[in-house]
Specification:
mainly alpha, 1% strand, 368 residues, 16 helices
């Protein structure tokens, strides 16, 4: 049922993306690029396809744990049940989100959401295919509390939908709720790579968790946010985007000589590397002042073709979301492969073959 709501929401997301683009065009802001925007949306579709085969199993396990080991039998007709678990979910979301920024193997699941070097509504839909699977154990205490699966699935969906509107530069600070609820200003900080902003503002709906646990930072006018990650992806391929960090970790695990480090690095803080590998194969240092965005120039024909191929995936993914429980596994898998192939081809066309043209990564703060 949750997937039906996602399918139903797709046209509304696209409408808001179009409105944001129109606003930026009228104000002469270059805040949405075709290559970046299509890749963001493609990553979101890759995630939807992957979760068609995983999320049902996770929900069944949660339901089993809740029914078998839940400490309290909660009344789903009571508003208290929904209110309690709305806040409880947000509390565990904060910790799952914070861990996803702190532990190497978990960062790989969340990394795709941060790879975009822009910040607009399309970024909200750029999700990591493995993110919810890797974060799922964080929410097991909710099952042990006896949270009904219907309540868990609903508050999860509400939290995700709420976070769509905060991915924009078209809205400045919001009076009265800054520092209390999540806002575009607070979440811009979370997506920024500026040293003062890194790994801050992890809350989903409520920012008070960040204030309570020391990860809150307000956006500063004298420090415009620069978006992306410190180990840039530099490709429009939405498939490899999902495993980019794991590929880096695997390379280090193979090259390091110490067996303890081959295992240890997966559970260490993000950026930690075995000493021998860090010395023999150092990563390029990130220079925020000189960094150039990835923006290869391609022909108009490639742009049109990429748009056309991407549009082919929209009715296919919508059909999958609505009819997944009425399809045979082979049919579902076949349509999924067609979608993934189209998205890969779209990214291939956007990458082009010409020497990329670079643009400055510095942005100007929005004033509305």
């Amino acid at each position: 049922m949750a997937d039906h709501y996602v399918a139903f929401s797709i046209p509304f997301f696209l409408i808001f993306i179009a409105l944001e683009t129109l606003l930026f065009w009228r104000k002469n802001y270059n805040k949405l690029r075709l290559n970046d925007g299509l890749t963001n949306l493609s990553c979101g579709i890759v995630t939807l396809v992957f979760e068609l085969f995983t999320k049902g199993g996770l929900f069944l396990f949660f339901d089993f744990m809740s029914r078998k080991f839940g400490l309290i039998a909660w009344d789903m007709d009571a508003s208290l049940t929904w209110l309690v678990f709305f806040f409880v979910y947000d509390f565990f979301y904060y910790w799952g989100h914070r861990l996803a920024h702190s532990v190497n193997f978990m960062w790989s699941g969340h990394l795709p959401h941060h790879q975009s070097e822009e910040y607009n509504f399309t970024v909200a839909l750029r999700q990591g295919a493995f993110q919810d699977t890797l974060n799922f154990p964080v929410f097991i205490p909710m099952a042990l509390m006896g949270c009904p699966i219907e309540v868990f699935a609903t508050v999860l969906l509400l939290n995700k939908f709420f976070q769509f509107w905060i991915h924009t530069q078209a809205i400045g600070r919001v009076p009265l709720i800054e520092g209390i609820l999540n806002t575009p200003s607070a979440h811009r900080v979370h997506h920024a790579v500026n040293p003062i902003y890194v790994d801050k503002n992890h809350g989903g709906f409520i920012m008070l968790w960040d204030k309570l646990f020391g990860t809150w930072v307000a956006e500063r006018e004298d420090e415009p946010c620069v978006f992306g990650v410190r180990k840039p992806y530099r490709s429009w391929d939405p498939l490899f985007a999902q495993v980019d960090w794991w590929a880096r970790l695997w390379t280090d695990a193979v090259q390091t000589q110490k067996w303890i480090d081959k295992i240890k690095l997966w559970f260490m803080p993000t950026g930690w590397r075995p000493t021998d590998v860090a010395q023999s194969n150092p990563w390029e240092a990130y220079d925020i002042d000189c960094y150039q965005k990835y923006d290869p120039k391609i022909s108009v024909q490639r742009k049109i073709a990429s748009i056309g191929i991407f549009c082919l995936t929209l009715p296919l993914i919508t059909h999958l979301l609505y009819e997944q429980f009425n399809m045979a596994l082979l049919e579902k898998g076949g349509i999924s492969l067609v979608i993934l192939a189209c998205l890969y081809l779209c990214g291939y066309l956007l990458n082009g073959h010409q020497k990329q043209s670079q643009t400055s990564a510095k942005i100007n703060p929005i004033e509305l």
